[in-house]
Amino acid sequence: MEAIILQVLNGLDKGSAYALIALGLTLIFGTLGVVNFAHGALFMLGAFCAVTLSRILTLSFETIDPTRTDFLGNPMTVHTPYVEAWFGEAVGGTIIDWAVPLAVIIAIPVMALIGVVMERGLIKHFYKRPHADQILVTFGLAIVIQEIVKAFYGANPIPTPAPEAFIGSFDIGQILGFDPYAIMYPYWRLVYFFFSAVIIAAVFAFLQFTTFGMVVRAGMADRETVGLLGIDIDRRFVIMFAIAAVVAGLAGVMYTPILSPNYHMGMDFLVLSFVVVVVGGMGSLGGAVAAGFLLGILQSFASMSQIIEALPGINQVVIYLVAVVVLLTRPRGLMGRKGVMED
Amino acid sequence: MSKGKFTRRGMLKAGAASGATLAMPTIFSGAVWADGHTGFTNAPGPDSVTLGFNVPQTGAYADEGADELRAFTLAVEHLNGEGDGGMMNTFSSQVLDGTGILGRRVEYVTGDTQTSSDAARSSARSMIERDGAVMISGGSSSGVAIAVQGLCQDAGVIFMAGLTHSNDTTGKDRRANGFRHFFNTEMSGRALAPILEGAYGNDRVAYHLTADYTWGWSQERSMRTYTEAMGWETANAVMTPVGAGDFSSYLTPVANSGADVLILNHYGGDMVNSLTQAVQFGLRDIVANNKDFAVVVPLFSRLMARGAGSAIEGIYGSTNWHWTLTDAGSQAFVRSFGERYGFPPSQAAHTCYVQTLLYADAVTRAGSFNPCAVAEALEGYEFDGLGNGPTLYRAEDHQCFKDVLVVRGKENPENEFDLLEIVEVTPRETVTYPIDHPDFQGGALGTCNPGA
Fold it and tell me: Is A312's pLDDT higher than 80?
């Protein structure tokens, strides 16, 4: 029982990331009709917003401390972050410690800007082109972005820890009446799950309860008619692209303490997120979120040692197996609508 | 082109001329063989010699790869007489004089193995075929090292393995053209077991997470052999894909498995992730079987310790070399590397630097770049002054035998590099295993291949 609860919990944080990325992918696909293979790169860029902010906050000046020696026996060079020098060690230290949550604030405008530039600069020229062209150009863009990040930050994962207050684990088992230590779950992963739930809810609320959202939904259903009604749907779609970029970026920012970011983390998530979108049903926002969590949890179960022993290698292929089964039984995906990508 | 050029007389002249040209090497072969500079792959010219350094510049082991490359660069500088000479001054063999190798200036080319056997083979092939490398070195993944070693054997160049820790590199996959200075999982098991017994007793239940490739399998097997021999049980051993990133689903079952020790047979970026995540999941805070839960990292390195931060405190592991060693060789190397790069070298850097010097030394002693002559000079070679105490390159399997360090993550580091403390220097006799050890069977060196 404990093992099952644990794997469900485990699946939740991975599922949250899949759901957030897939949500953005579906939004872009549903509104702009573009299959955006550069979406994983947006997730990665979000993570690097956190890395960048953490680097900016730890920018420091050097002083020589003659009382201590370095590993070569020379007087030690001490690095003091400017933030600590300006605000005092305690306040400065806390600001540095909270770099990841603070990066959320920075990432919103940065990612929105990146989204707009990406859409206006490149993707808008491919609206009328076949999906194959869109896939090629966005895939190429993803590689370019990756290589730029690699050139600036190197190829290695960059550890970006969560604030001190969230380090450690929460003994969920004790609350549920199990033995102590039976179900330990890191605080940050809980935070991540709730954070994604809030973002997903916000996106849905935005689309459901605002006029803007209504127009966008109408545009997703029938772009031509909305245009005939005299609504500038293109401008709204740019904003949707920016929102999708922000969602992916925030997913990335908050994921950094779970997985040290590196330049190809986006690609790793992208492939799975596409499977998520397909399983959920192309163009279905609810389907993307449901399939994200479903596949996250299934993947986590498939990594259990008992299951791997019975079916070696299942942890690597389970997502694709599910995709095959779903597509065979429901060719439009779990919640797919008729007419999407069928023209 | 006019037809008239192809006269009978012209053809005869040309034939005679080309015949003479073809016969030239044979005419002078006696003299050339004495110097030993032809008759093998990529025989260097009179001015320079090219070495190929094949390291992971991307992937889970990229940190190690970057440090290996720094060490290679430093070694080449020292061989060419630049810098302070580093360990060339403390090396027991004093034939290297800073004039390159056999009077030829050392040049080098680099490749990115991407921690993938296929990529590594293709970059090694390109360095041999296109750049004319006469020796390939590098590593950081045993899968890669074994693949490249096989390629070097077939191509007829020497392979001086960098960081590769699987038993198989000098076990079932050993090759006559391949040489390993780094230690292996059998040695780690022998060195670690007594220390673990002292620290945690002999009534423990271990859970292994193992990188799913040759090194992980080898590491797990050695650790199980030696921990089970001292009375530990093994609750489970789970394979994890290399570069998995998120190990949470492998880590969560550990707490309820009845185990009280987690052995992480991971390296590089994988180890950084799995260890930090193990700590995040509170594994080090729990009490299992009435004992404090313990984590062991059989192959430890300072680079990984830096990546994992405070998660490494108190964790035991083994290492080939550490910069805090106080012997003259280690100190000379740390000084030269530290002044050049601003931080101390890692064990990966150390083994690569040493391998480059050992190769240069062997060529100089043999008086030839011919791989067979170099191999002969290395086989059974006993040396000292390179940071590990007296060391033997065993002729039968091309494995170095030397002291092994058992280290522990330091509780209160004095500076950012002071992350591991040496708990014990396990003497060479303790880690030496017989050539017929069952874990090293199933392959043979074969004969050396000088290539073309």
Answer: no
The mean pLDDT value for A105-120 works out to: 94
Give B83→chain A minimum CA distance, Å. Answer: 16
* C-beta atoms of A186 and B281 within 8 A: yes
pLDDT value for A341: 55
Measured CA to CA in angstroms, residue B391 lies from A177, B188, B334 at distances of 58, 17, 19
Number of domains in chain A: 1
Residue of B nearest to A300 (CA): B249
Mean pLDDT of chain B: 87
At position B348, the amino acid (one-letter code) is: A
Q: Please judge whether A72 and B335 are an interchain contact, meaning their C-beta atoms are less than 8 angstroms apart.
A: yes
A342: in domain = no
Residue A110 has pLDDT above 70, yes or no: yes
Q: Kindly state whether residue A339 falls inside one of the protein's structural domains.
A: no
**B382 neighbors B400 (Cβ within 8 angstroms):** no
Q: Which domain holds residue A299?
A: 2-329
Question: How far, in Å, CA of A267 to CA of A272, rounded?
Answer: 9
Contact B153, B159 (CB under 8 A): yes
Q: Is A22 a member of any domain? A: yes
Rg of the Cα atoms in chain B: 24
Cβ-nearest to B246 among A14, A154, A159:
A14
Confidence of residue B4 (pLDDT cuts 50, 70, 90): very low
Q: Which residue of B lies nearest to A298 if distances are taken between CA atoms?
A: B249
pLDDT recorded at residue A181: 72
In-domain check, residue A340: no
How far A237 CA lies from chain B's nearest CA (Å)? 34
Q: What is the DSSP letter of A161?
A: P
**Cβ–Cβ contact B226 with A under 8 A:** no
How does pLDDT run across A223-267, given as a tens digit for each residue?
788 888 888 877 887 888 999 999 999 999 999 988 888 888 888
Interface of A with B in 132-151 (CB under 8 A): 150
Please report, for residues A227, A335, B366, the alpha-carbon distance to residue A210 in angstroms, rounded to integers and kept in the order given.
Answer: 19, 23, 82
Q: Which residues pair with B135 in a beta bridge?
A: B51, B158
Using DSSP bridges, classify how beta strands B294-299 and B316-319 pair: parallel, antiparallel or unpaired. parallel
User: C-alpha dihedral over A43, A47, A52, A57, to 10 degrees?
Assistant: 140
Residue A247: give its domain's CATH number. Answer: 1.10.3470
Of residues B7 and A195, more confidence is placed in: A195
pLDDT in tens, B397-417: 999 999 999 999 988 887 778
A93 lies within 8 A of chain B by CB: no
Subunit contact B245:A299, Cβ cutoff 8 A: no
- By Cβ distance, the residue of A70, A186, A305 closest to B280 is A186
Q: Running DSSP on this structure, what letter comes out for residue B104?
A: B
- 3-state SS, residue B313: coil
pLDDT tens string B235-251: 989 888 887 778 888 88
Q: What is the model's pLDDT at position B246? A: 80
Owner of token pair 């797919």: A336
**Spatial distance between the Cα atoms of B374 and B393, rounded to a whole number of angstroms:** 13
In chain A, residues with a C-beta closer than 8 Å to the C-beta of B288 are 181
Q: pTM here?
A: 0.81
Q: How far apart are the first and last CA of chain B?
A: 36
Model confidence at A35: pLDDT above 90:
no
Q: Which of A156, A174, A256 to mutate to test the interface with B (most CBs of B within 10 A)?
A: A156
